[in-house]
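for the writeup, i need someone to sanity check this before i put it in the appendix. the sequnce is what the collaborator sent (i think, or maybe the updated version? ugh). structure was predicted straight from it, no edits. if anything looks off just tell me and ill rerun, i have time this weekend
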Amino acid sequence: VQLQASGGGLVQPGGSLRISCATSGFTFTSYSMSWARQAPGKGLEYVGSVNRDGTGIRYADSVEGRFTISRDNVKNTLYLQMSSLEPGDTALYYCTRGTIMDYWGEGTLVTVSS
């Protein structure tokens, strides 16, 4: 199982960014997928999850209305579209398999700063 997040970078407050997670080594369409993050010096935080066909999505209260999770079941890729970014969104973002999060990829760093 491999999960590789990419697309992180530096963005100004109020800006937008989309990060991706390319997956391999398992049947992508058989699993829901999740995003989690870890801010500098803080613990892990659940961001949200999407079900197997992309029709059911839930979010943490902290990102509801600003972040959008989606998936491409042909490309076996998970996405996180982030808008209205705040400095508090600065973190390493991880994609994980399932809602039990049994496999984690390497994170991609998102820095929100002016």
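The longest strand covers residues 17-24. Residues 50 and 57 are 4 Å apart (CA to CA).
thx in advance!!
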